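Handout, section B. The chain below has 119 residues.
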Amino acid sequence: MANSKRDLFLKRRLRVRNKLRKMAAGRARLSVHRSSKNISVQLIDDVNGVTLASASTLEKDLGVIGKNNVEAAAKVGAAIAERAKKAGVETCYFDRGGFLFHGKIKALADAAREGGLKF
């Protein structure tokens, strides 16, 4: 039986996450989720199981509601970097999930790096 797109996505996501867990060493994880209309990101402390900071295109204060483009992803990346600094996090691992590292995901990561996050 052939794997569906969803099954392949889930396998890819787990493969990425398992590699990160091996290297984690107590650092936070920057987890990205991209839907057809929005993009969201969370800074997660896996040791304690808590979310330290989050940002999304659904937030009114970012001014990107309804926009699903590279510029909106960059604003979300800058916002998560700022919120991570407030939470006291400077280094983390970038968990792209099952998404390929290009386009919106890459723009978000580059903006977070410019904002001061190291990964």
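Note. The chain has a mean pLDDT of 91. Compare this with the example in section A.
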